[in-house]
Design brief:
Strand content: under 5%
Number of strands: 0
Distance between the termini: 88 Å
Mean pLDDT: 84
Radius of gyration: 38 Å
Structural class: mainly alpha
Order of helices and strands: HH
Number of helices: 2
Number of domains: 1
Length: 128
């Protein structure tokens, strides 16, 4: 009734499957090797880029700190100037349209409120 499997065909199928298995195993091994080489190359490239950027950043950091210090000092001076203009506008009605136009009243401290510039640090912290 049932036909017995042909032993010759099952052996040829088994050897063909073994050959495909070995080819697949070689392909996976070569892909893993290529992946290791590519990731190593990328790691070396990123390390070199990090070193270059760190060198450039170390060279620019003192200049940037000086610019930030100058900016904060000039900002405080400009705030003081604007406050003096607002106070001048309170005492001189001819100047009040300018104070209203540029909203200098908002810079004056409200009763019971702390000064904005008093909460600013005197100098910027240095990062090394």
């Amino acid at each position: 009734m049932d036909n017995p499997p042909n032993p010759a065909s099952s052996e040829s199928e088994a050897s063909e499957l073994r050959a495909q298995y070995h080819q697949l195993q070689q392909l996976v091994s070569s892909i893993l090797l290529v992946l290791i080489v590519i990731s190593g190359t990328l790691t070396v490239f990123l390390l070199r880029q990090w070193r270059f950027v760190k060198t450039e950043l170390d060279a620019v950091t003192p200049q940037a700190a000086q610019l930030l210090t100058n900016y904060s000092n000039n900002f405080a001076l400009s705030q003081d100037f604007a406050k003096k203009l607002a106070e001048y506008g309170r005492t001189h009605p001819d100047f009040s349209p300018i104070v209203n136009r540029y909203r200098l009243d908002a810079l004056l401290p409200k009763p019971g409120a702390a000064s904005i510039t008093s909460s600013l640090p005197a100098t910027l912290p240095s990062h090394k």
